């Protein structure tokens, strides 16, 4: 959307020395403008056609419209050049029909270009011509249809730049379907998943138009290119950017992007995580854990899931890492998915490393078994059983794990099911393969980042071939990871940065307990309720029951700051390190973040959203709406508040004004007491000791303790409201603020004015 001022600025930008003769602006779909600008004279018709075409192209992108040539006026004599454009939904060359989806809306919007002669006869009565303004542009922007609805933008025509981009896709090994999906993925990553961009045929053409472009590209025989002919341009492009790519006859592609290269040369490779996704082309990523989650160091693409291919892939990846980092890669720990082929290959390539099974793969396998049809367990009983399994998996030593093992072994469903009983025994007998003697504080975030990336590849990239996956890793995942690192450096929500482009649930999600949620599915014929937990990452939905990171988990983690996945604070050196790994903080090069959230530096200021953020809807924040119910002191401590997760452009303020000085636990410092009060206190301490003075000192201490307690309670409520910013809580916050205004701040308290009233019978004292 645009305003009168922005429209005027845009017209001045695309028209040289623009002078407005008429400017009537009613709305973004109804305005009339007449302007004059300067165009070079003594040029041919092709030059003027190119000028007009470029002007129309820029104006169309700004107003989300498409224009067609109505008349070119080839035989004009009284003027030098003229061309008339109509809205593409005019009746020109269209059949009349009653269909609502027809292009023919009899729209009369038009743009008229007139280029006049400049000579002694024409400048006599035209002041603008004497100034060199020889192009007259008349815009009648009055449409008979909506412009920015999803249906309207879907009828726009694809631009020439978009067509050229698809021709480039076809020349580099893309099929029409692959080009369509990859292009939509680029749009989602750069502009968000708003229908304004996804359905805009200007930048995202329809499948019918893509097939038409593909038919035009067939004579070039791009589909007959060999594997080497398609990989060589990608290799040269990546190496020129500072990356690395190699491939062999087995179609094993080793890919290291510039960001991965910086991770290799910066972080230690003592702990390497190997994770594979076997849908379509097998994608194997090598990660290293960090405070920002799992950072990739290499991507391996191969076509077969067997030990031979895994050995070949890991061997070439090891050699590439050693050549790039100029080191010998000898990891101490390698975490893998619970897969025999990967385990055998890792033992061959890294014989001295301790091979550990990833805990997220164990949870996924167990949850898949619990939700299977072979074990008929009620939906409401699945999560308590999974929580018992999760306690064993998260155990750091044998003593703790054994307690949970015996408790799980005696569980009713385990004793009644041979499959579950066998799985419990297998899990406990193989504890040496997954149990570590220590628990890394950032492993929860590492596991979540891997699962989110894995689900992103499963959902968005399952049909991509090797060539497209190379482009996805180098163009999309590279920018995505860069934004994650910069978000962590700026103390923004790290999990939201990971899940920003993930598929999120549009249903209403409610919290029913600590780390437990439920969602009501009303879109199906038979409404149903499913539950999920964010501590075990398990959901009862059709996708989550296979152990996958479903849209419900993504929605909650994207909008809720959980203790389980809260990122670790970085030191100044670590912030500098992650900024260097990200390639520097250059906002103008960040294509994935079209708009940004402007946050005031003052901790007491409110969060403001920039206009571009509101227009583009690139980022989303959570609007939590609590069900109406009476407010009681007990409800403030409850964890089972019901709330809805809705997409709103209302980002939450993550700054806690009470946490500016972390060395102060009570929030009350010596500086908060005025100098006059300090002199009175010192004089009072030196005064003769008597019972009245002792009582006064005791009451002063009690007053300070009350203020400390009040301050701690306010900090707790502040954190609670920050995690649950719903309407009822806002009302409670206002009530609390009114009560706090009645209490005099401690820095304004003059202890000399304190009046002490003693009641010995009740052994009570008051401060007035």
TrEMBL record:
Domain of life the protein comes from: Eukaryota
PROSITE patterns recorded: ZF_SWIM (PS50966)
InterPro entries attached to this UniProt entry: Znf_SWIM
All copies of domain SWIM-type, residue ranges: 517-561
Any one GO MF annotation of this record: zinc ion binding
Zinc keyword on record: yes
Record keywords, A-Z: Metal-binding, Zinc, Zinc-finger
Name of the protein described by the UniProt record: SWIM-type domain-containing protein
Lineage: Eukaryota, Metazoa, Ecdysozoa, Arthropoda, Hexapoda
């Amino acid at each position: 959307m645009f305003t009168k001022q922005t429209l005027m600025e845009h017209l001045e930008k695309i028209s040289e020395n623009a002078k407005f003769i008429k400017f009537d602006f009613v709305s973004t779909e109804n305005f009339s403008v007449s302007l004059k600008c300067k165009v070079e004279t003594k040029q041919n018709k092709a030059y003027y056609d190119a000028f007009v075409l470029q002007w129309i192209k820029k104006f169309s992108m700004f107003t989300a419209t498409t224009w067609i040539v109505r008349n070119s006026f080839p035989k004009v004599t009284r003027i030098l050049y003229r061309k008339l454009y109509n809205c593409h939904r005019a009746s020109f060359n269209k059949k009349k029909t009653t269909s609502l989806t027809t292009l023919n809306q009899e729209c009369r919007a038009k743009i008229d270009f007139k280029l006049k002669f400049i000579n002694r006869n024409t400048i006599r009565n035209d002041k603008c011509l004497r100034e060199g303004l020889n192009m007259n542009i008349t815009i009648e922007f009055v449409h008979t249809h909506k412009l920015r609805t999803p249906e309207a933008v879907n009828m726009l025509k694809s631009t020439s730049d978009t067509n050229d981009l698809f021709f480039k896709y076809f020349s580099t090994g893309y099929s029409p379907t692959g080009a369509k999906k990859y292009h939509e993925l680029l749009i989602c990553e750069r502009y968000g998943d708003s229908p304004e961009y996804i359905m805009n045929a200007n930048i995202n053409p329809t499948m019918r138009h893509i097939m038409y472009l593909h038919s035009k590209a067939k004579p070039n025989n791009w589909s007959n290119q060999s594997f080497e002919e398609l990989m060589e341009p990608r290799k040269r492009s990546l190496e020129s950017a500072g990356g690395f790519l190699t491939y062999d006859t087995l179609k094993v592609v080793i890919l290291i992007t510039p960001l991965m290269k910086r991770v290799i040369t910066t972080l230690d490779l003592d702990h390497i995580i190997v994770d594979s996704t076997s849908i379509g082309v097998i994608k194997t990523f090598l990660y290293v854990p960090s405070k920002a989650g799992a950072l990739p160091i290499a991507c391996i693409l191969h076509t077969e899931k067997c030990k031979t291919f895994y050995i070949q892939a890991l061997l070439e990846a090891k050699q590439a890492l050693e050549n790039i980092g100029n080191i010998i890669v000898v990891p101490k720990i390698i975490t893998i998915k619970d897969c025999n082929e990967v385990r055998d290959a890792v033992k061959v390539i890294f014989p001295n490393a301790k091979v550990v099974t990833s805990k997220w793969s164990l949870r996924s396998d167990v949850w898949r078994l619990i939700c299977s049809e072979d074990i008929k367990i009620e939906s409401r009983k699945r999560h308590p059983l999974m929580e018992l399994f999760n306690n064993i998996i998260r155990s750091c030593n044998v003593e703790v794990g054994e307690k949970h093992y015996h408790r799980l072994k005696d569980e009713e469903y385990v004793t009644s099911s041979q499959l579950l009983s066998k799985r419990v025994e297998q899990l406990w007998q193989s504890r040496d393969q997954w149990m570590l003697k220590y628990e890394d504080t950032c492993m929860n975030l590492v596991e979540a980042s891997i699962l989110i990336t894995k689900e992103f590849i499963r959902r968005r990239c399952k049909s991509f071939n090797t060539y497209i996956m190379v482009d996805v890793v180098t163009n999309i995942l590279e920018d995505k990871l860069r934004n994650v690192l910069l978000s962590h450096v700026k103390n923004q929500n790290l999990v939201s940065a990971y899940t920003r482009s993930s598929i999120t649930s549009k249903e209403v999600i409610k919290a029913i307990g600590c780390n437990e949620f439920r969602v009501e599915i009303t879109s199906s014929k038979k409404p149903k309720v499913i539950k999920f937990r964010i501590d075990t990452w398990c959901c009862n939905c059709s996708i989550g029951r296979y152990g996958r990171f479903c849209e419900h988990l993504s929605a909650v983690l994207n909008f809720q700051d959980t203790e389980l996945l809260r990122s670790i604070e970085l030191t100044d050196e670590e912030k500098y390190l992650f900024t260097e790994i990200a390639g520097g903080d250059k906002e103008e090069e960040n294509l994935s973040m079209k708009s940004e959230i402007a946050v005031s530096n003052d901790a007491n200021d409110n969060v403001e959203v920039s206009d571009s953020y509101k227009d583009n809807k690139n980022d989303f924040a959570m609007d939590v709406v609590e069900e109406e119910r009476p407010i009681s002191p007990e409800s403030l401590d409850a964890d089972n508040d019901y709330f809805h997760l809705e997409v709103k452009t209302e980002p939450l303020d993550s700054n806690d004004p009470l946490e500016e000085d972390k060395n102060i636990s009570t929030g009350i410092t010596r500086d908060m007491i005025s100098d006059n009060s300090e002199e009175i206190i010192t004089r009072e301490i030196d005064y003769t000791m008597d019972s009245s003075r002792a009582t006064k000192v005791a009451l002063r201490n009690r007053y300070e303790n009350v203020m400390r307690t009040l301050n701690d309670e306010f900090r707790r409520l502040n954190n609670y409201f920050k995690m649950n910013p719903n309407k009822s809580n806002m009302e409670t916050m206002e009530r609390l603020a009114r009560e706090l205004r009645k209490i005099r701040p401690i820095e304004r308290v003059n202890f000399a004015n304190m009046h002490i009233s003693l009641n010995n019978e009740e052994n009570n004292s008051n401060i007035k």
